[in-house]
Design goal:
Shape: extended
Strand order of the largest sheet: 1-2
Strand content: under 5%
Protein name: Ankyrin repeat domain-containing protein
Radius of gyration: 52 Å
Keywords: ANK repeat, Membrane, Repeat, Transmembrane, Transmembrane helix
InterPro entries: Ankyrin_rpt, Ankyrin_rpt-contain_sf, Multifunctional_ANK_Repeat
Length: 1103
């Protein structure tokens, strides 16, 4: 399937090409009718504009083309009519009046285009029918500034066409330049107008519209948006906007223009009401009827609502007509919203029973229960809507709906109006009915301090000692809520004074913890007989709770003889309940005054977290005795403090040196100092005070060792490493790097650690940062690199560590394998610096190669000299067994070979398989290299695991070589050095057999002259000609196998036996025939007159 973007681009290209062809007609045809091409070109260019912007779809192409043509023609004709008279006057008799008239006509036309710009933008961007464009022009955004740009673009395309088409107006050279300008205008102005015609978002449009106040139905005030939303919006978006704003006429017009009545609101919008829901809340129901006529589903639930739920909720007076319309057209009165409320639940809050009556007549469930357990009657009672409650009771609503809460509890927990309670009691409501939590109406009324309802319930016989599931009785509930009025009514009925809740608290204990506790309640409870000395399950008496809460007036009312804090002895009665007189504030005051006896009494009363919060208060040097006193008396320094949950140590870190003694005391106690950014906070605090820097650095190191965060930033955004560098604490910086701190993490000013180290001129820190992976190429916000800073300050010793020209730093902490990597590219400076940075000289890479091996193999003599001078191990071998010497030999670097030999490299150090460097040189045909190795003491008699010596290797290479002279020199060198000419290797292979290709595939290409030269040198050593390898092949067999005719002749002349047979009983002649070398086979028979063509096909022509 082709991509939609590709389809649009293709359509835009085709339309643009058609438009250019039409617009260019006047350039090629001199007839005046050719100007019609400029008129017609507007249509394809207008279509292309929407495709270029990606707003138009290929559908309805013909309709959009016709509409664009009609719009363009109408604009052209109207503009021509406006300009006709002024242009004619100016042609006949130029005058100021004619110019003014022409300007006025242009302005009037421009204003008309401006007023209708939404239709133009819609036609160019997305297209549409004439009816849709009419609605867009009628309800558009009016004289918006972007619309003025659209009008200018339209006028800019029209004017050149009119001027060119006007008879006798533009002639000669002016016409020659005006025609191309007109083509460009017609081609570009549609795209500009389409781009400027983009509609704003709905929310943006509504948010920017001016708001005035107007009178609404019922005399209330409401906000009315005066201007309309942008006409460039889709029909559905404008329909929703009109429905929300109550513009019923506009909404009906949009429905008539084709807007989808079933469209849902945008998923991300704040208002998720559907069109039917919006229409149902308006007084004017025409839109609702139109939607019903269009077939809208009135029971479609969206965002937990249906139109009927929307019509019944949020209306104090009720919407009887809307509800009637919805019910008459099939709306379901039994639907529920997200909270379980039915339309009848919402109607229960309305003052008009008419809505509830309609719902009940339509089949609404009278006793349906919502998620809170309330029936519609319970909702009416909770809202104090007794009129509707009476109506529902008369219609048969139950006082205790199945699975729900008794309505009497809802009536008791609202306003203190006994009318509803009495109404329910008259209709047989049980006075001691309980809800799911075991609460009665009396308990609810006592907690709400509804004294009149309490009196009514008690008069009706309510149980004054009934308790709920948590053990609360009416007395306990009233005490916990501090309900003085309810207690004055309840206590004369003599409720049980010994009642306690599930936590063992009696009425006095609950009063001490009440949010609002009047001291007048205390004597009421004491006279009732509540025990002031009773302890709860935590062992606390009411007096203890009051003291702990700092409620001294309650303390005095409960026990007048209880000693008060000395700071309150001279205070007035009103000062006893001041917030600062809590136990923690009294503890702080006692400590400040050094009244340690009083502080010891207050400490157990203060909350533990409040006592811990005093430790930072007394952390300065002048208050360390108080700090120590708190620690000695068991205050926990690791308890999270109020206001963030930090521990004491973490809070002290932000105070720097001022809290250093306290921090040392905490560290001595083993207090943890973890927490994100803790070390950075301490360093930032120390940055403002450089005194005693060494002592503070030692403390910072101790903090780091004890677990302070080495990575987290302080609130300003500076990491610990940057702060340590700024302070010049090199020991801490090195410790942070060793811990794993990021050497490239920037501070709040965008500077990397290398920038800070270079700014300080600290070469040791620069080296450490580079060693741990800092990047010298990092740029500061002003574009400077660390190298630039070093050079600008004239610090060449710093630049030495920052400039890596050949081998580049890897962007991570340096590893031992980086040394062989730098040696591989031959960067002597990099290797030298890496060695100075502490990388081991004999470090190896993943292949086991050392830097010396890499340098020797790469032929980097100066680097080899450096490494040898630094003590590199010349015998260290790689995973493959290669040594620096064998690498230099195999890569043909004789000078490095000599240097390694001088440095003590073992000349016969064997590779895997017993291969010596001499064998490697011989196998490569390097006679000069062999000479140097022999001069260095190489053993000519050494053999590998298969019995091959250096001469065997040279013989194998000779068969493949085409350098005759090199082969001869190599054989002479090895034979003179004592190599055995007839020494057999594994399988009986002698140098003679190897020279003749015993290890090569049959018919392998070789240079016969080179083979002959090596053969001659071996024959000169009187080698045996009757030798045979494991297949039984002798010298003649091998020569026949490879088709070496001249070699056969030479061997026959030397006395080789032509009748020698192999293990398959074949003679050399048989081998030659089998291989097809007839000319070679002929050497074993009498001479013939005809020469075989095989020779010419086998051997390349000689020059």
């Amino acid at each position: 399937m082709p991509d939609r973007g590709d389809t649009r681009v293709g359509a835009a290209l085709i339309a643009s090409a058609v438009g250019l062809a039409l617009a260019a007609l006047p350039l090629f045809l001199a007839h005046p009718a050719a100007l019609a091409g400029l008129w017609l070109a507007w249509v394809p260019f207008g279509l292309a504009a929407g495709w270029w912007l990606g707003t138009r779809t290929p559908g309805e192409l013909l309709r959009d083309a016709v509409v664009l043509g009609l719009l363009w023609t109408a604009a052209l004709l109207s503009f021509a009519l406006l300009l006709a008279w002024p242009l004619q006057r100016l042609q006949q008799a130029p005058s100021l009046g004619g110019v003014l008239a022409l300007g006025a006509a242009c302005g009037l036309g421009l204003f008309a285009f401006w007023r209708t710009w939404p239709a133009t933008g819609r036609a160019l961007r997305t297209g549409g029918s004439l009816a849709e464009l009419r609605v867009a022009a009628r309800h558009g955004a009016g004289l918006a500034w972007r619309g003025f740009g659209v009008a200018l673009a339209l006028a800019g395309a029209l004017l050149p066409v009119l001027l060119l088409a006007w008879p006798g107006l533009v002639e000669g050279a002016a016409r020659d330049w005006l025609l191309p300008a007109g083509i460009v205008a017609v081609a570009t102005m549609p795209l500009l107008a389409a781009w400027l015609g983009e509609p704003p978002e709905v929310a943006e449009t509504v948010g920017l519209l001016p708001v005035t106040t107007a009178r609404a139905y019922g005399g209330e005030t409401m906000a009315v948006v005066e201007d309309e939303a942008d006409a460039g919006l889709s029909l559905e978006s404008r329909l929703y906007l009109a429905a929300r704003l109550g513009r019923i006429e506009q909404a009906l017009d949009l429905l008539e223009a084709g807007a989808d009545p079933h469209a849902l609101p945008p998923p991300g919008g704040r208002d998720q009401r559907t069109l039917a829901m919006l229409a149902a809340v308006h007084v004017d129901l025409r839109l609702l009827r139109a939607l019903i006529a269009a077939g809208v589903d009135l029971n479609l639930a969206h965002a937990g609502l249906t139109p009927l739920l929307a019509a019944t909720r949020d209306s104090w007076h009720g919407r009887v007509e809307a509800v009637m319309t919805l019910l008459a057209n099939g709306a379901d009165p039994r639907v529920v919203d997200a909270d379980g409320n039915t339309p009848l639940h919402h109607a229960a809050r309305s003052t008009d029973p008419g809505v509830a009556a309609l719902l009940l007549d339509a089949g609404a469930a009278l006793d349906a229960v919502n998620h809170e357990g309330l029936s519609p009657l319970g909702v009416a009672c909770a809202a104090g809507n007794w009129r509707l409650a009476k109506f529902l009771i008369e219609r048969g609503a139950h006082n205790e709906p199945a699975g729900g809460q008794p309505v009497l509890l809802a009536a008791a927990g609202g306003d203190d109006d006994p009318a509803g309670v009495n109404l329910l009691l008259r209709h047989k409501a049980r006075v001691d009915a309980r809800d799911q939590r075991g609460r009665t109406a009396l308990l609810v009324a006592c907690r709400a301090d509804n004294a009149e309802i309490v009196a009514a319930l008690l008069a009706a016989g309510a149980d004054r000692n009934a308790h709920d599931d948590e053990g609360f009785t009416p007395l306990l509930a009233a005490s916990a809520a501090g309900s003085l009025a309810a207690l004055r009514v309840l206590i004369p009925t003599q409720p049980d004074p010994g009642a306690v809740d599930a936590a063992g608290r009696n009425a006095l204990a609950l009063l001490m913890q009440a949010r609002q506790a009047d001291p007048e309640i205390v004597p009421l409870l004491l006279r009732l007989g509540v025990d002031p000395g009773q302890r709860d399950r935590d062992g606390r008496r009411p007096l203890d709770l009051a003291v702990a809460a700092g409620r001294w007036r309650l303390v005095r009312a409960l026990d007048p003889l209880h000693p008060l804090p000395s700071s309150l002895l001279d205070e007035s009665e009103d000062a006893l309940d001041e917030p600062e007189q809590s136990p923690e504030s009294l503890l702080r005051d006692a400590l400040i005054a050094r009244r340690f006896d009083e502080a010891a009494r207050m400490l157990p009363l203060a909350p533990p977290e409040a006592a811990s919060a005093l430790l930072p208060v007394f952390a300065d040097e002048c208050d360390l005795d108080l700090f120590d006193w708190l620690l000695r008396h068991g205050v926990d320094p690791e308890r999270p403090l109020p206001g963030g949950g930090d521990g004491v140590a973490f809070r002290l870190l932000a105070r720097g040196r001022h809290a250093a003694p306290a921090l040392r005391r905490l560290l001595a106690r083993g207090v943890g100092i973890g927490g994100r950014g803790g070390l950075a906070r301490f360093l930032a605090a120390c940055a403002g005070d450089r005194s005693h820097a060494g002592e503070h650095e030692a403390l910072a190191l101790d903090l780091l060792a004890r677990g302070a965060d080495p990575f987290g930033k302080n609130p300003a955004g500076d990491p610990p490493l940057a702060l340590a560098l700024r302070l010049g604490w090199s020991r801490l910086a090195l410790a942070l790097l060793a811990t794993g701190a990021d050497p490239n993490q920037r501070d709040a000013r965008g500077l990397s650690p290398l920038h800070l180290a270079c700014a300080r001129g600290d070469a040791a820190l620069v080296k450490a940062l580079v060693r741990h992976g800092a990047s010298p190429e990092a740029r500061s916000p002003d574009g400077q690199t660390p190298l630039g800073l070093a050079l600008a300050s004239g610090r060449r010793e710093l630049a030495h560590w920052l400039e890596w020209r050949q081998w580049r730093l890897p962007g991570r902490p340096l590893q031992p394998a980086d040394l062989p990597a730098a040696a591989m590219v031959g960067d002597r400076d990099a290797v030298e610096r890496l060695l100075e940075l502490g990388l081991p000289i004999d470090a190896v890479d993943v292949q086991g190669c050392s830097a010396l091996l890499r340098a020797a193999g790469g032929g980097h003599a100066a680097l080899v000299e450096l490494l040898l001078a630094r003590g590199a191990d010349v015998a260290l071998s790689a995973c493959t067994g290669a040594t620096p010497l064998s690498a230099a030999v195999s890569m043909r670097h004789p000078q490095i070979v000599e240097r390694l030999l001088v440095a003590g490299a073992a000349v016969d150090q064997a590779l895997p398989g017993g291969i010596t460097p001499l064998m490697v040189a011989a196998a490569l045909g390097l006679d000069d290299m062999c000479r140097r190795l022999l001069a260095g003491g190489a053993d000519i008699a050494a053999q590998d695991g298969q019995g091959h010596g250096a001469l065997h290797c040279a013989a194998i290479q000779a068969f493949q070589s085409r350098d005759r002279d090199r082969v001869v020199r190599l054989f002479d060198l090895l034979l003179r050095a004592g190599a055995g000419a007839d020494a057999p290797a594994q399988g009986g292979l002698t140098p003679l057999l190897l020279v003749l290709g015993a290890r090569a595939e049959p018919g392998s290409s070789c240079d016969e002259d080179t083979v002959l030269a090596a053969l001659e040198r071996l024959l000169a050593e009187n080698v045996a000609l009757d030798v045979q390898e494991r297949r039984g092949f002798g010298p003649l067999h091998l020569a026949c196998l490879h088709g070496l005719r001249r070699v056969v002749r030479r061997l026959l002349r030397a006395g080789a036996d032509p009748g020698l047979r192999d293990t398959l009983n074949r003679t050399p002649h048989d081998i030659a025939v089998l291989r097809g070398f007839v000319d070679v086979a002929a050497e074993f028979e009498p001479a013939r007159g005809q020469v075989s063509l095989a020779r010419f096909l086998r051997e390349p022509p000689r020059e």
